[in-house]
# Entry
Amino acid sequence: MSRHLKVAVGQYSDKGRKNLNQDFHGVCLPREPQLSAKGVAVALADGISSSQVSQEAAQSAVTGFLEDYYCTSDAWSVKKSGEHVLTATNSWLHSQTQQSQHRYDRERGYVCTFSGLVIKSTTAHLFHVGDARIYRLRGGELIQLTEDHRVWMNSQQSYLARALGMDRKVEIDYLPVHLAVGDLMILSTDGVYEHTDLGAVQSALAAGPDLDAAARAIVEGALERGSGDNLTIQLIRIDELPDPEANEVFRQISDLPCPPQLEARNVFEGYQIVRVIKRSARSHIYLAVDSDTGERVVIKTPSVDMQVNPAALERFLLEEWIARRINSTHVLKPCSQTRQRQSIYVVTEYIEGQTLTQWMIDNPKPDLATVRAILEQVSKGLQAFHRLEMIHQDLKPDNIMIDGTGTVKIIDFGATRVAGLEEVETPIEQINLLGAALYAAPEYFLGEQGGQRADLYSLGVIAYQMLSSGFPYGTQVPKSRTKAAQKKLVYKSVLSEEREIPAWVDDAIRKAVHPDPLERYDEISEFIYDLHHPNKDFLNKTRPPLIERNPVIFWKGVSFVLAVLLVVSLVARAHSIG
# Structure
Protein backbone atom coordinates (compact mmCIF):
# COMPACT_ATOMS: atom_id res chain seq x y z
CA MET A 1 0.00 0.00 0.00
CA SER A 2 1.43 3.38 -0.98
CA ARG A 3 2.13 5.95 1.71
CA HIS A 4 1.17 9.60 1.66
CA LEU A 5 2.25 12.68 3.54
CA LYS A 6 0.74 12.67 7.02
CA VAL A 7 1.51 15.17 9.77
CA ALA A 8 0.19 15.97 13.23
CA VAL A 9 -0.04 19.61 14.32
CA GLY A 10 -0.28 21.27 17.72
CA GLN A 11 -0.22 25.01 18.41
CA TYR A 12 -0.85 27.48 21.17
CA SER A 13 -0.59 31.26 21.63
CA ASP A 14 -0.92 33.51 24.69
CA LYS A 15 -0.57 37.25 25.24
CA GLY A 16 1.43 36.48 28.36
CA ARG A 17 2.01 39.48 30.62
CA LYS A 18 1.16 41.98 27.91
CA ASN A 19 -2.23 43.58 27.32
CA LEU A 20 -2.38 42.62 23.64
CA ASN A 21 -1.28 39.53 21.73
CA GLN A 22 0.56 40.77 18.64
CA ASP A 23 1.49 37.25 17.49
CA PHE A 24 -0.49 35.41 14.83
CA HIS A 25 -0.20 31.85 13.57
CA GLY A 26 -1.95 29.37 11.29
CA VAL A 27 -1.71 26.12 9.39
CA CYS A 28 -3.30 24.75 6.21
CA LEU A 29 -3.73 20.99 5.74
CA PRO A 30 -5.20 20.54 2.23
CA ARG A 31 -6.63 17.35 0.81
CA GLU A 32 -5.49 15.60 -2.34
CA PRO A 33 -4.62 16.47 -5.04
CA GLN A 34 -3.48 19.77 -3.51
CA LEU A 35 -1.64 17.98 -0.72
CA SER A 36 0.76 16.38 -3.22
CA ALA A 37 0.88 19.36 -5.54
CA LYS A 38 1.40 22.13 -2.95
CA GLY A 39 1.99 20.49 0.43
CA VAL A 40 1.19 21.54 4.00
CA ALA A 41 1.77 25.19 4.92
CA VAL A 42 2.52 26.50 8.44
CA ALA A 43 3.17 30.13 9.35
CA LEU A 44 3.85 32.30 12.38
CA ALA A 45 4.32 36.07 12.67
CA ASP A 46 5.34 38.28 15.60
CA GLY A 47 4.40 41.95 15.73
CA ILE A 48 6.90 44.42 17.15
CA SER A 49 6.04 45.96 20.52
CA SER A 50 6.83 49.56 19.46
CA SER A 51 3.91 49.51 16.99
CA GLN A 52 0.22 49.69 17.81
CA VAL A 53 -0.75 48.15 14.47
CA SER A 54 1.80 45.36 14.14
CA GLN A 55 -0.76 42.74 15.24
CA GLU A 56 -2.62 43.63 12.03
CA ALA A 57 0.61 43.18 10.11
CA ALA A 58 1.17 39.76 11.71
CA GLN A 59 -2.35 38.62 10.88
CA SER A 60 -2.08 39.87 7.29
CA ALA A 61 1.28 38.14 6.82
CA VAL A 62 0.07 34.75 8.04
CA THR A 63 -3.36 34.74 6.38
CA GLY A 64 -1.89 36.11 3.16
CA PHE A 65 0.77 33.42 3.06
CA LEU A 66 -1.64 30.56 3.78
CA GLU A 67 -4.22 31.75 1.26
CA ASP A 68 -2.08 33.13 -1.55
CA TYR A 69 0.46 30.30 -1.58
CA TYR A 70 -2.26 27.87 -2.69
CA CYS A 71 -3.30 30.27 -5.45
CA THR A 72 0.11 30.10 -7.12
CA SER A 73 0.71 27.73 -10.01
CA ASP A 74 1.32 24.05 -9.29
CA ALA A 75 4.17 24.30 -11.78
CA TRP A 76 6.03 26.85 -9.65
CA SER A 77 8.62 25.64 -7.19
CA VAL A 78 7.79 26.09 -3.51
CA LYS A 79 10.63 28.59 -3.31
CA LYS A 80 9.23 30.77 -6.10
CA SER A 81 5.68 30.52 -4.78
CA GLY A 82 6.64 31.41 -1.21
CA GLU A 83 8.94 34.27 -2.15
CA HIS A 84 6.37 35.64 -4.60
CA VAL A 85 3.68 35.72 -1.91
CA LEU A 86 5.92 37.17 0.81
CA THR A 87 7.33 39.84 -1.50
CA ALA A 88 3.80 40.95 -2.32
CA THR A 89 2.88 40.93 1.39
CA ASN A 90 5.93 43.01 2.25
CA SER A 91 5.05 45.59 -0.41
CA TRP A 92 1.49 45.85 0.88
CA LEU A 93 2.56 46.24 4.53
CA HIS A 94 5.15 48.86 3.61
CA SER A 95 2.60 50.81 1.57
CA GLN A 96 0.19 50.74 4.52
CA THR A 97 2.85 52.34 6.70
CA GLN A 98 3.64 54.94 4.02
CA GLN A 99 -0.02 55.93 3.92
CA SER A 100 -0.29 56.17 7.71
CA GLN A 101 0.87 58.76 10.25
CA HIS A 102 3.95 56.58 10.89
CA ARG A 103 5.49 56.86 7.43
CA TYR A 104 8.65 58.41 8.88
CA ASP A 105 8.89 55.99 11.81
CA ARG A 106 8.87 52.45 10.47
CA GLU A 107 9.11 50.89 13.94
CA ARG A 108 5.60 52.16 14.61
CA GLY A 109 4.18 50.98 11.32
CA TYR A 110 2.87 47.73 9.82
CA VAL A 111 5.90 45.59 10.63
CA CYS A 112 6.25 42.00 11.81
CA THR A 113 8.67 39.11 11.79
CA PHE A 114 7.73 35.95 9.87
CA SER A 115 8.67 32.28 9.90
CA GLY A 116 6.86 29.74 7.77
CA LEU A 117 7.39 26.37 6.21
CA VAL A 118 5.84 24.28 3.48
CA ILE A 119 6.11 20.51 3.72
CA LYS A 120 5.93 19.06 0.20
CA SER A 121 6.80 15.46 -0.60
CA THR A 122 9.78 14.66 1.66
CA THR A 123 11.12 18.20 2.07
CA ALA A 124 10.37 21.10 4.40
CA HIS A 125 10.83 24.48 2.68
CA LEU A 126 11.61 27.20 5.23
CA PHE A 127 10.91 30.93 4.77
CA HIS A 128 12.18 33.36 7.37
CA VAL A 129 12.62 37.05 8.07
CA GLY A 130 13.07 38.50 11.58
CA ASP A 131 13.69 36.77 14.88
CA ALA A 132 10.97 34.16 15.20
CA ARG A 133 12.62 30.76 14.90
CA ILE A 134 12.21 27.34 13.31
CA TYR A 135 13.78 24.28 14.96
CA ARG A 136 13.95 20.60 14.14
CA LEU A 137 13.88 17.97 16.88
CA ARG A 138 15.28 14.64 15.69
CA GLY A 139 16.63 11.81 17.81
CA GLY A 140 16.84 13.91 20.94
CA GLU A 141 18.78 16.70 19.18
CA LEU A 142 17.20 20.17 18.86
CA ILE A 143 18.68 22.21 16.00
CA GLN A 144 17.89 25.84 15.18
CA LEU A 145 17.39 26.06 11.40
CA THR A 146 16.89 29.82 11.04
CA GLU A 147 19.13 32.75 11.76
CA ASP A 148 17.89 35.71 13.82
CA HIS A 149 17.89 38.99 11.93
CA ARG A 150 18.70 40.98 15.05
CA VAL A 151 21.72 43.16 15.68
CA TRP A 152 23.04 43.30 19.26
CA MET A 153 24.61 46.57 20.43
CA ASN A 154 25.60 44.99 23.76
CA SER A 155 24.36 42.23 26.05
CA GLN A 156 21.22 44.23 26.84
CA GLN A 157 20.41 46.26 23.73
CA SER A 158 19.55 45.07 20.21
CA TYR A 159 17.42 46.04 17.27
CA LEU A 160 15.57 44.17 14.53
CA ALA A 161 17.55 44.41 11.30
CA ARG A 162 15.03 42.80 8.98
CA ALA A 163 11.24 42.27 9.04
CA LEU A 164 8.21 42.24 6.78
CA GLY A 165 6.96 45.75 6.02
CA MET A 166 10.09 47.44 7.37
CA ASP A 167 11.45 48.45 3.94
CA ARG A 168 10.18 48.66 0.39
CA LYS A 169 12.16 45.53 -0.47
CA VAL A 170 12.86 42.58 1.78
CA GLU A 171 15.40 39.77 1.70
CA ILE A 172 13.77 36.47 2.65
CA ASP A 173 15.86 33.55 3.92
CA TYR A 174 14.99 30.26 2.22
CA LEU A 175 16.19 26.79 3.23
CA PRO A 176 15.08 23.33 2.02
CA VAL A 177 15.38 20.63 4.72
CA HIS A 178 15.09 16.91 4.03
CA LEU A 179 12.64 15.20 6.39
CA ALA A 180 12.48 11.84 8.12
CA VAL A 181 9.53 10.14 9.78
CA GLY A 182 9.39 11.18 13.42
CA ASP A 183 10.89 14.64 12.89
CA LEU A 184 9.29 17.42 14.91
CA MET A 185 9.38 20.88 13.34
CA ILE A 186 8.96 23.72 15.87
CA LEU A 187 8.08 27.33 15.10
CA SER A 188 8.14 29.78 18.01
CA THR A 189 8.39 33.44 18.88
CA ASP A 190 11.09 34.85 21.15
CA GLY A 191 8.66 34.91 24.08
CA VAL A 192 8.86 31.10 24.04
CA TYR A 193 12.34 30.10 22.87
CA GLU A 194 14.19 32.53 25.17
CA HIS A 195 12.66 30.73 28.18
CA THR A 196 12.54 27.14 26.93
CA ASP A 197 15.14 24.40 26.53
CA LEU A 198 15.30 20.89 25.10
CA GLY A 199 14.32 19.32 28.41
CA ALA A 200 11.14 21.39 28.63
CA VAL A 201 10.14 20.40 25.09
CA GLN A 202 10.81 16.69 25.68
CA SER A 203 8.93 16.77 28.98
CA ALA A 204 5.87 18.32 27.33
CA LEU A 205 5.94 15.76 24.53
CA ALA A 206 6.33 12.85 26.94
CA ALA A 207 3.12 13.82 28.74
CA GLY A 208 0.96 12.44 25.93
CA PRO A 209 0.32 12.31 22.18
CA ASP A 210 -1.81 15.48 22.10
CA LEU A 211 0.42 18.11 20.43
CA ASP A 212 -1.96 20.97 21.30
CA ALA A 213 -1.55 20.04 24.97
CA ALA A 214 2.22 19.83 24.52
CA ALA A 215 2.30 23.28 22.90
CA ARG A 216 0.27 24.74 25.76
CA ALA A 217 2.54 23.12 28.34
CA ILE A 218 5.64 24.61 26.67
CA VAL A 219 4.09 28.10 26.66
CA GLU A 220 3.00 27.86 30.30
CA GLY A 221 6.49 26.68 31.25
CA ALA A 222 8.04 29.70 29.50
CA LEU A 223 5.68 31.99 31.42
CA GLU A 224 6.69 30.40 34.70
CA ARG A 225 10.34 30.98 33.82
CA GLY A 226 9.73 34.73 33.49
CA SER A 227 8.80 35.38 29.85
CA GLY A 228 7.43 38.91 29.53
CA ASP A 229 6.46 38.81 25.87
CA ASN A 230 3.66 37.29 23.78
CA LEU A 231 4.16 33.53 23.45
CA THR A 232 3.34 31.39 20.39
CA ILE A 233 4.54 27.93 19.40
CA GLN A 234 3.64 25.46 16.65
CA LEU A 235 4.59 21.77 16.64
CA ILE A 236 4.48 19.72 13.41
CA ARG A 237 5.27 16.02 13.70
CA ILE A 238 6.04 14.00 10.57
CA ASP A 239 4.05 10.80 10.99
CA GLU A 240 4.33 9.51 7.43
CA LEU A 241 6.18 10.55 4.28
CA PRO A 242 4.98 9.78 0.78
CA ASP A 243 6.42 7.01 -1.32
CA PRO A 244 8.38 8.48 -4.20
CA GLU A 245 5.73 7.21 -6.60
CA ALA A 246 2.90 8.88 -4.66
CA ASN A 247 2.50 11.66 -7.18
CA GLU A 248 -0.17 12.26 -9.74
CA VAL A 249 1.82 11.26 -12.81
CA PHE A 250 3.26 8.01 -11.48
CA ARG A 251 -0.13 6.88 -10.15
CA GLN A 252 -1.53 7.21 -13.68
CA ILE A 253 1.31 5.06 -15.01
CA SER A 254 0.64 2.44 -12.37
CA ASP A 255 -3.14 2.35 -12.78
CA LEU A 256 -3.73 2.56 -16.54
CA PRO A 257 -2.58 0.30 -19.40
CA CYS A 258 -1.19 1.54 -22.71
CA PRO A 259 -3.59 1.39 -25.69
CA PRO A 260 -2.99 -0.81 -28.75
CA GLN A 261 -1.83 0.63 -32.06
CA LEU A 262 -4.84 2.26 -33.72
CA GLU A 263 -5.94 2.46 -37.34
CA ALA A 264 -8.44 4.50 -39.34
CA ARG A 265 -12.12 3.73 -38.49
CA ASN A 266 -11.23 2.26 -35.10
CA VAL A 267 -13.47 3.40 -32.24
CA PHE A 268 -11.34 4.21 -29.22
CA GLU A 269 -12.82 5.34 -25.88
CA GLY A 270 -15.52 7.47 -27.48
CA TYR A 271 -13.38 8.72 -30.39
CA GLN A 272 -13.55 7.71 -34.06
CA ILE A 273 -10.06 7.45 -35.52
CA VAL A 274 -9.90 9.26 -38.89
CA ARG A 275 -6.29 8.72 -39.90
CA VAL A 276 -2.75 8.38 -38.66
CA ILE A 277 -0.95 11.74 -38.54
CA LYS A 278 2.45 10.50 -37.44
CA ARG A 279 4.15 7.51 -35.90
CA SER A 280 7.52 7.84 -34.19
CA ALA A 281 9.67 5.96 -31.71
CA ARG A 282 8.12 8.05 -28.94
CA SER A 283 4.43 8.29 -29.79
CA HIS A 284 1.62 7.60 -32.23
CA ILE A 285 -0.52 10.57 -33.25
CA TYR A 286 -3.99 10.28 -34.76
CA LEU A 287 -6.67 12.61 -36.09
CA ALA A 288 -9.98 11.64 -34.47
CA VAL A 289 -13.54 12.83 -33.99
CA ASP A 290 -15.20 13.01 -30.58
CA SER A 291 -18.34 10.87 -30.94
CA ASP A 292 -20.25 13.05 -28.43
CA THR A 293 -19.44 16.51 -29.77
CA GLY A 294 -18.33 15.89 -33.35
CA GLU A 295 -15.20 17.94 -32.63
CA ARG A 296 -12.00 17.05 -34.44
CA VAL A 297 -9.17 16.33 -32.00
CA VAL A 298 -5.69 14.87 -31.93
CA ILE A 299 -5.07 11.72 -29.91
CA LYS A 300 -1.53 10.92 -28.85
CA THR A 301 -0.64 7.48 -27.46
CA PRO A 302 2.68 6.03 -26.27
CA SER A 303 4.59 4.04 -28.86
CA VAL A 304 5.11 0.31 -28.37
CA ASP A 305 8.74 0.93 -27.37
CA MET A 306 7.71 3.42 -24.67
CA GLN A 307 5.32 1.00 -23.00
CA VAL A 308 8.16 -0.82 -21.24
CA ASN A 309 9.96 2.40 -20.26
CA PRO A 310 8.48 3.98 -17.09
CA ALA A 311 10.63 7.12 -17.44
CA ALA A 312 9.38 7.69 -20.98
CA LEU A 313 5.78 7.11 -19.88
CA GLU A 314 6.17 9.65 -17.09
CA ARG A 315 7.51 12.18 -19.57
CA PHE A 316 4.60 11.39 -21.93
CA LEU A 317 1.99 12.05 -19.22
CA LEU A 318 3.71 15.26 -18.17
CA GLU A 319 2.85 16.76 -21.56
CA GLU A 320 -0.85 16.92 -20.72
CA TRP A 321 -0.14 18.07 -17.16
CA ILE A 322 1.93 20.93 -18.56
CA ALA A 323 -0.60 21.85 -21.24
CA ARG A 324 -3.42 22.14 -18.68
CA ARG A 325 -1.44 24.73 -16.73
CA ILE A 326 -0.50 27.02 -19.60
CA ASN A 327 -3.03 29.48 -20.93
CA SER A 328 -1.71 31.02 -24.12
CA THR A 329 -3.01 31.50 -27.64
CA HIS A 330 0.40 30.36 -28.82
CA VAL A 331 0.57 27.05 -26.96
CA LEU A 332 -1.31 23.88 -27.89
CA LYS A 333 -4.44 23.40 -25.77
CA PRO A 334 -5.56 20.07 -24.28
CA CYS A 335 -9.18 19.01 -24.66
CA SER A 336 -11.37 18.65 -21.61
CA GLN A 337 -11.81 15.03 -20.57
CA THR A 338 -15.48 14.16 -20.01
CA ARG A 339 -15.18 10.37 -19.99
CA GLN A 340 -13.36 8.01 -17.63
CA ARG A 341 -10.11 6.94 -19.21
CA GLN A 342 -9.36 3.27 -19.62
CA SER A 343 -5.80 3.67 -20.92
CA ILE A 344 -2.93 6.14 -21.24
CA TYR A 345 -3.36 8.77 -23.95
CA VAL A 346 -3.53 12.52 -24.44
CA VAL A 347 -6.22 14.49 -26.30
CA THR A 348 -5.47 17.96 -27.68
CA GLU A 349 -6.99 20.47 -30.06
CA TYR A 350 -6.53 19.80 -33.79
CA ILE A 351 -4.60 22.52 -35.58
CA GLU A 352 -5.32 22.65 -39.30
CA GLY A 353 -2.13 24.02 -40.75
CA GLN A 354 1.52 23.16 -41.25
CA THR A 355 4.70 22.95 -39.25
CA LEU A 356 7.22 25.76 -39.44
CA THR A 357 9.54 23.25 -41.12
CA GLN A 358 7.12 22.83 -44.02
CA TRP A 359 6.39 26.57 -44.07
CA MET A 360 10.11 27.29 -44.54
CA ILE A 361 10.24 24.79 -47.41
CA ASP A 362 7.29 26.55 -49.04
CA ASN A 363 8.72 30.01 -48.27
CA PRO A 364 12.51 29.73 -48.71
CA LYS A 365 13.08 33.51 -48.72
CA PRO A 366 10.45 35.11 -46.45
CA ASP A 367 10.47 38.86 -45.97
CA LEU A 368 11.78 40.23 -42.69
CA ALA A 369 8.36 41.46 -41.52
CA THR A 370 6.89 37.95 -41.81
CA VAL A 371 9.82 36.42 -39.96
CA ARG A 372 9.43 38.94 -37.15
CA ALA A 373 5.69 38.24 -36.86
CA ILE A 374 6.24 34.47 -36.54
CA LEU A 375 9.08 34.85 -34.04
CA GLU A 376 7.04 37.23 -31.89
CA GLN A 377 4.21 34.72 -31.62
CA VAL A 378 6.61 31.91 -30.73
CA SER A 379 8.19 34.15 -28.10
CA LYS A 380 4.80 34.73 -26.47
CA GLY A 381 4.32 30.99 -26.21
CA LEU A 382 7.76 30.56 -24.65
CA GLN A 383 7.10 33.36 -22.18
CA ALA A 384 3.95 31.52 -21.05
CA PHE A 385 6.18 28.56 -20.17
CA HIS A 386 8.75 30.71 -18.40
CA ARG A 387 6.17 32.50 -16.24
CA LEU A 388 5.36 29.10 -14.75
CA GLU A 389 9.03 28.14 -14.24
CA MET A 390 8.96 25.76 -17.17
CA ILE A 391 11.79 25.43 -19.68
CA HIS A 392 10.67 24.01 -23.04
CA GLN A 393 14.10 22.56 -24.00
CA ASP A 394 13.06 21.31 -27.45
CA LEU A 395 12.06 24.33 -29.51
CA LYS A 396 12.49 23.58 -33.21
CA PRO A 397 10.50 24.16 -36.44
CA ASP A 398 8.92 20.69 -36.23
CA ASN A 399 7.38 21.66 -32.86
CA ILE A 400 5.83 24.89 -34.14
CA MET A 401 2.54 24.94 -36.05
CA ILE A 402 1.05 27.72 -38.18
CA ASP A 403 -2.71 27.46 -38.75
CA GLY A 404 -4.82 28.83 -41.58
CA THR A 405 -5.24 32.20 -39.84
CA GLY A 406 -1.50 32.67 -39.40
CA THR A 407 -1.61 31.92 -35.66
CA VAL A 408 1.57 30.24 -34.44
CA LYS A 409 1.51 27.60 -31.68
CA ILE A 410 4.12 25.56 -29.84
CA ILE A 411 2.86 21.97 -29.96
CA ASP A 412 5.25 19.57 -28.21
CA PHE A 413 6.17 19.56 -24.50
CA GLY A 414 7.95 16.21 -24.32
CA ALA A 415 11.24 17.66 -23.07
CA THR A 416 9.84 20.42 -20.85
CA ARG A 417 11.42 20.79 -17.42
CA VAL A 418 9.08 21.89 -14.60
CA ALA A 419 10.60 23.37 -11.46
CA GLY A 420 7.62 22.46 -9.28
CA LEU A 421 7.82 18.77 -10.20
CA GLU A 422 11.55 18.55 -9.54
CA GLU A 423 10.70 18.91 -5.83
CA VAL A 424 8.62 15.71 -5.86
CA GLU A 425 10.73 12.63 -5.39
CA THR A 426 10.20 9.88 -7.93
CA PRO A 427 11.76 6.44 -8.42
CA ILE A 428 11.85 7.16 -12.15
CA GLU A 429 15.08 8.59 -13.45
CA GLN A 430 14.34 11.91 -15.11
CA ILE A 431 15.41 11.74 -18.74
CA ASN A 432 17.41 14.67 -20.02
CA LEU A 433 16.11 15.42 -23.49
CA LEU A 434 18.24 17.85 -25.42
CA GLY A 435 15.86 18.04 -28.34
CA ALA A 436 17.20 18.43 -31.87
CA ALA A 437 20.97 18.87 -31.55
CA LEU A 438 21.28 21.79 -33.98
CA TYR A 439 18.72 23.82 -32.01
CA ALA A 440 19.93 22.85 -28.52
CA ALA A 441 21.87 25.47 -26.53
CA PRO A 442 25.64 24.83 -26.15
CA GLU A 443 25.39 24.53 -22.35
CA TYR A 444 23.43 21.29 -22.72
CA PHE A 445 26.47 19.69 -24.36
CA LEU A 446 28.51 20.57 -21.28
CA GLY A 447 26.09 18.58 -19.14
CA GLU A 448 24.57 21.72 -17.63
CA GLN A 449 20.89 22.43 -16.99
CA GLY A 450 19.48 24.94 -19.41
CA GLY A 451 17.43 27.91 -18.25
CA GLN A 452 15.28 30.46 -20.04
CA ARG A 453 18.30 31.60 -22.03
CA ALA A 454 18.59 28.09 -23.49
CA ASP A 455 15.10 28.49 -24.97
CA LEU A 456 16.16 31.93 -26.22
CA TYR A 457 19.12 30.33 -27.99
CA SER A 458 16.78 27.91 -29.79
CA LEU A 459 14.55 30.80 -30.85
CA GLY A 460 17.60 32.66 -32.14
CA VAL A 461 18.65 29.63 -34.20
CA ILE A 462 15.18 29.48 -35.74
CA ALA A 463 15.39 33.20 -36.57
CA TYR A 464 18.76 32.61 -38.22
CA GLN A 465 17.48 29.63 -40.19
CA MET A 466 14.42 31.50 -41.47
CA LEU A 467 16.66 34.27 -42.83
CA SER A 468 19.51 32.14 -44.18
CA SER A 469 18.41 28.47 -44.42
CA GLY A 470 21.49 27.62 -42.36
CA PHE A 471 22.73 27.54 -38.77
CA PRO A 472 24.79 30.20 -36.95
CA TYR A 473 27.71 27.86 -36.22
CA GLY A 474 27.09 25.28 -38.91
CA THR A 475 27.07 21.82 -37.36
CA GLN A 476 29.82 22.54 -34.83
CA VAL A 477 27.79 23.14 -31.64
CA PRO A 478 26.91 19.47 -30.90
CA LYS A 479 30.60 18.62 -31.37
CA SER A 480 31.77 21.31 -28.94
CA ARG A 481 31.59 19.62 -25.56
CA THR A 482 34.09 21.70 -23.61
CA LYS A 483 34.24 25.38 -22.67
CA ALA A 484 37.42 25.74 -24.71
CA ALA A 485 35.81 24.28 -27.80
CA GLN A 486 32.78 26.52 -27.45
CA LYS A 487 34.97 29.62 -27.19
CA LYS A 488 36.35 28.74 -30.63
CA LEU A 489 32.90 28.72 -32.25
CA VAL A 490 32.68 31.40 -34.93
CA TYR A 491 29.34 32.97 -35.73
CA LYS A 492 28.55 33.10 -39.46
CA SER A 493 26.79 36.34 -40.27
CA VAL A 494 23.27 36.06 -41.64
CA LEU A 495 23.99 39.00 -43.96
CA SER A 496 24.38 38.22 -47.64
CA GLU A 497 24.23 39.89 -51.03
CA GLU A 498 20.97 38.07 -51.78
CA ARG A 499 18.92 39.45 -48.88
CA GLU A 500 18.26 42.96 -47.63
CA ILE A 501 18.72 42.49 -43.89
CA PRO A 502 19.83 45.35 -41.61
CA ALA A 503 23.16 44.76 -39.87
CA TRP A 504 21.55 45.41 -36.47
CA VAL A 505 19.16 42.48 -37.03
CA ASP A 506 22.19 40.26 -37.52
CA ASP A 507 23.66 41.69 -34.30
CA ALA A 508 20.47 40.85 -32.38
CA ILE A 509 20.57 37.26 -33.59
CA ARG A 510 24.30 37.03 -32.85
CA LYS A 511 23.62 38.05 -29.22
CA ALA A 512 20.68 35.63 -28.86
CA VAL A 513 22.78 32.64 -29.98
CA HIS A 514 25.99 33.50 -28.13
CA PRO A 515 27.66 30.26 -26.89
CA ASP A 516 27.88 31.72 -23.37
CA PRO A 517 24.36 32.01 -21.89
CA LEU A 518 25.44 34.98 -19.77
CA GLU A 519 26.20 36.93 -22.96
CA ARG A 520 22.68 36.43 -24.34
CA TYR A 521 19.66 38.61 -23.64
CA ASP A 522 18.21 38.48 -20.14
CA GLU A 523 14.67 38.29 -21.53
CA ILE A 524 13.19 36.97 -24.77
CA SER A 525 11.20 40.20 -25.08
CA GLU A 526 14.49 42.13 -25.40
CA PHE A 527 15.49 39.99 -28.37
CA ILE A 528 12.15 40.51 -30.09
CA TYR A 529 12.38 44.26 -29.50
CA ASP A 530 15.86 44.42 -31.02
CA LEU A 531 14.63 42.57 -34.10
CA HIS A 532 12.26 45.50 -34.68
CA HIS A 533 14.39 48.44 -33.49
CA PRO A 534 18.08 49.28 -34.01
CA ASN A 535 19.93 48.80 -30.72
CA LYS A 536 22.23 51.76 -30.10
CA ASP A 537 24.81 49.46 -28.55
CA PHE A 538 25.04 47.64 -31.87
CA LEU A 539 25.15 50.80 -33.96
CA ASN A 540 27.92 52.35 -31.88
CA LYS A 541 30.19 49.36 -31.59
CA THR A 542 33.09 48.51 -33.85
CA ARG A 543 31.98 46.14 -36.57
CA PRO A 544 33.62 42.70 -36.56
CA PRO A 545 35.99 41.99 -39.43
CA LEU A 546 34.52 40.96 -42.77
CA ILE A 547 35.87 37.43 -42.40
CA GLU A 548 33.54 36.96 -39.40
CA ARG A 549 30.57 38.83 -40.80
CA ASN A 550 30.63 37.18 -44.23
CA PRO A 551 33.46 34.72 -44.87
CA VAL A 552 32.20 33.94 -48.39
CA ILE A 553 32.48 37.55 -49.54
CA PHE A 554 35.85 37.85 -47.76
CA TRP A 555 37.38 34.89 -49.55
CA LYS A 556 35.86 35.92 -52.86
CA GLY A 557 37.53 39.28 -52.38
CA VAL A 558 40.86 37.68 -51.50
CA SER A 559 40.61 35.42 -54.54
CA PHE A 560 39.86 38.40 -56.77
CA VAL A 561 42.84 40.38 -55.46
CA LEU A 562 45.13 37.38 -55.89
CA ALA A 563 43.85 36.88 -59.42
CA VAL A 564 44.50 40.54 -60.28
CA LEU A 565 48.01 40.33 -58.80
CA LEU A 566 48.67 37.17 -60.79
CA VAL A 567 47.58 38.84 -64.04
CA VAL A 568 49.71 41.92 -63.29
CA SER A 569 52.67 39.67 -62.52
CA LEU A 570 52.26 37.74 -65.78
CA VAL A 571 51.95 40.92 -67.81
CA ALA A 572 55.07 42.38 -66.18
CA ARG A 573 56.98 39.19 -66.83
CA ALA A 574 55.89 39.15 -70.46
CA HIS A 575 57.15 42.74 -70.91
CA SER A 576 60.49 41.92 -69.31
CA ILE A 577 60.98 38.93 -71.60
CA GLY A 578 60.00 41.00 -74.63
